[in-house]
Amino acid sequence: MKGLSLVPTVFSFLTPAYRAEDTLHRTIDSVRAQTRSDWELVVTDNGMSDPIADIVRSYSHDPRIRLVRQPNNGPDGGTMASAAVAVGEVFVPLNSDDAVEPGYLDRVGAVLDAQPGVGAVTCDAWTFTDPGCRILPRSYLQTAGARVPPDPTRPLRVADVVDGPCPFYGGAIRREVWEAVDGLNSDSPAVGDLDFWLRVLVGGHDVRVLPDRLARYRVEAGSVSRPVDDAEASEAIEQQRYAVLRRAALADGDPESLAALTRFRRREGYFQEIRRARVALDHGDVAGARAHARAAFAHRRTARAGLIVTALRVAPAAMARVHPMKRRAEDAVRTTARTLRPAARRSGDG
Known about the structure:
The protein contains 13 helices and nine strands. By secondary structure, the protein is an alpha/beta fold. The protein folds into two domains: 11-218, Spore Coat Polysaccharide Biosynthesis Protein SpsA, Chain A (Alpha-Beta Complex); 228-339, no CATH class. Helix 9 (231-252) runs antiparallel to helix 10, helix 10 (255-282) packs antiparallel against helix 11 (286-299) and helix 11 packs antiparallel against helix 12 (303-314). The model is unreliable at 1-5, 222-229 and 324-350 (pLDDT under 50).
C-alpha cells in the first residue's frame, strides 16, 4: 500500500464481530488512527455475515486489516479465532462496538518497551452510549467501583481484583503471557474477562494498570438497572464470579487475597438479599421480602437495609404498593432507552 511503512507487526488487535454492522467502522477507524503504525487488526466475522465481511473488505487497501470467518462461537471464541492467526508480539482484545484513543498504542507500548518484565498493561476507558457516542461522566474503572486512580508503578495483585474492579478487558498482553494462560478459554464464560486477568496474576505475571482513559467502552442503554425478570440470571453470574474469585484467592494463598474474598462475599451477600427482597415484593410476598431484608441487614448493617426492614415491619402494605409503582417507572425509562437503541447488546455476543 502506498504511504504505509512496512514495519514489523508488534501489536495484534483481536476483534470478534457479531451483529456489529452499525459500529464496526468506528472500531476499525479508531485502530487506523493510532499514532504507532506497527499493528494489525484481525476481525473475526463471528457468524458468517456478508455485511460484516463487506465492511472489513472495504479496508482492503490497508493490508494490516485481516478477516477471519466462522460460525458464531461467542465473543471469547471470536477473539480466540483472531488470536489463532495473529502474528504480533502483543495481543489487544477489542470489541466491535468499542474503540481505542489515537495514543493507545503509544502509551501502553512505552510501558512494555521500557519494562520487559511487565507482561500486560491495561488502562481506564471513557464510557459512552449510542446513538451519537455520547460520553458519560464516569469512566470504566469508576463505574466498576474504583475509589482512587490506579498506580501504574505498582504491579496489580490478586487481592486488588478480588476486592476491587475487574481490569478493563482491552489491555495489551504479551503473546507469551496470553499463551501461558490459554487466552480467553474459560470454564466461566459469563465472567471470562475477570477469569482471564486472575489467571494471569495467579500465574505470576506482572500487570500494570494505567489511569489514562485510552479506550472507549460502550455502555448499553438500559443496562444500569436490570429488570427483576433477570434476577435469576444475575445470581447465576454472581455465582460464577464468586467461584472464579475464590479459586484465584485460594491459589494465590496471600492472606490479603483471602481477606478480600471474605469482604466480597459479605458485600455480594448483601446485594443478593436486597435483590431477592425486591423480587419478593414484586410478587406480593411481603413475608419473604422481610426475611430477605433482614438477611441483607445481617450481611451489612446499612441504613438502606435497616429502612427496608423497618418499613416492611411497620407498613408492609404501603411498601408493597410503592415498590411496584417504582418498578413500573423504572421499566418505562428502560423501554424508552431501548426504543432509542433497539439492539441493546454487546456486539460480540452470541
